[in-house]
Amino acid sequence: MPKIEKPKILVVNDDANSLFALTSLLAQWAEQESYEVLAARSGQDALRQVLMHDFAVILLDVNMPGMDGFETAAAIHARARSADIPIIFITAFLADELDRLKAYQHGAVDFLFTPVIPQILYAKISVFVALAMKNEELKKQARQLSQRTTELTATNQRLTREIAERQTVERQNHAKDEFLAMLGHELRNPLSAISSAASLIGLPGVSADGVQRAKKIIQRQSQHLGRIVDDLLDLSRAMSGKILLSRAPLDLSALVAQTLETYRATGRSTDYELDQDLDAGWVDGDSTRLEQITSNLIDNALKYTQPGGRIEVRTWTENDEVVLSVRDTGVGIPGELLPHVFDVFVQGSSTLDRSQGGLGIGLSLVRRLAELHGGSIEADSKGPNRGSTFTLRLPRIEQLQPAVPATPSRSEHGKPRVLLIEDNDDGREMMTMMLGGYGYDVQAAADGLLGLNAAASYQPDLALVDIGLPGIDGYEVARRLRANPATREIKLIALTGYGLAEDLQRVMDAGFDRHLVKPVDIDQLMEVIDTCAQVPVKQ
Description:
The protein is α/β, with parallel strands linked by helices. About 50% of the residues lie in helices and about 20% in strands. Helix 6 (about 210-240) crosses helix 9.
């Protein structure tokens, strides 16, 4: 523990002999009482000492030339830091009552008359020295207490922060666990249906109608699995900023109208009152991704609105923004969940009715896609069972005529000859049968080297090439086909499970004409094949 600084006593007297006598007298007890003695010859000198030191007590001569004792005391006590220093006036004259009052008004605590009696002086200064030491000890304890309080406050803040962070991590982990459990449930349902349908087809005595229904179940559930995988991949790409937008001027109201028409045509909105009020508003956006936003918002409204409920879809312009609003009369959103509906994993909470399935990550994807377009999305609800409103805002542009894509035409000479290079046996067999069923002349190869040989001998018009091949991968297959004069004119379509922007760029750099992400929708595949095959079919 640091040693407490010795208290100081200041003796102020203009007479050198008196000053020496007092300081010498006080010095006799300095070691015993543990104090220091300082001297001043005038009021001005006393003020300078007070500016430099703190004093336990000041012995101040009343009768000094220039600045007398009363003026010196007043000056000392006028300064905040020295206002509480006790002053003992020393005088050679008996003070009458008026002088005593004046002295006390200037901060005096006592009087001493010369000649000073040593025992009385010792008794008086001992009290003030002891008080000074006690005050210094209390100040030290107060400083230590303040430091300890500061340390405890910092520790408490750190612990509070760590607890909050731990609770956040625990909530996130719990939400992820719920999400993974939900994902397992959502995957098992279609897989179970597919497995049962496949087993049904193989049973003896099953009717043709039963086989047809089983096939439709397999097709429908496979599409459902594909949508789940697409949602997961899209969310991952969106959160990492790896979605590449294909922007073009478009009228958002026309895109929304087309999306709503699809819902009506497929019967997905049959049990609901679906109203629209669509004003034109032009944006610079990716039509596929904006349709994805619109579909997710409408799906969300349908999912959490009871049949017979009302869903209103509106678009309008507001200052420099184009606004899309989807309002429903459904279950609403609890106040505690409202700020988190766009968070990853949170939207899939069991607090919402999940009877219609889905991963609950659609709104997270919507927010990220909106941000990639330079826009925003917000949710509003008055509470449970009072409906919800989702509002999308996108930057508005001046009205432009969008580029009209050229309508692909089929080859006039018949269907193209197709080479399929795929290492997965089941996938290769099913794709070959499917293409054959659509009237294509197909030859298949199980790896890259066999594919190169088949391309040289078969001379196809178009090749579907899996990227993840054993031996040499699909990129190398494409490079070798392009390097060979006999095969360089073959149209090349990449089939891959990777759909990031850098994957697309790598595919194109290798010499492919198109890039398709598995699982490929059959209608999309047929369109891409016919679009690519713009050269006469070899006879």
